[in-house]
Amino acid sequence: MLRMQVQFTEEQAEALRREARRRGVSMAAVVRQAVDAALRGGEEDARWRRAVAAVGRFADREPDVAREHDRYLEDALDR
Asked: CA 22, CA 37: separation in Å to the nearest integer?
């Protein structure tokens, strides 16, 4: 790993401390995870847009799919 120096505002540093404590990881781990997420943001944004576009697409289907999804899947696989 490379060692780098980054400057944060006091508010950012405190929020970072709280988040690290909440996750049970180091502040550096939180920063690395945030950088990873930011660098693949375009990819995740595209997946998020596709997922949101699917919401409600099948609203005219059976009204109990949330409860009966296993039965519907089994029926579809039996065909």
From this structure: 18
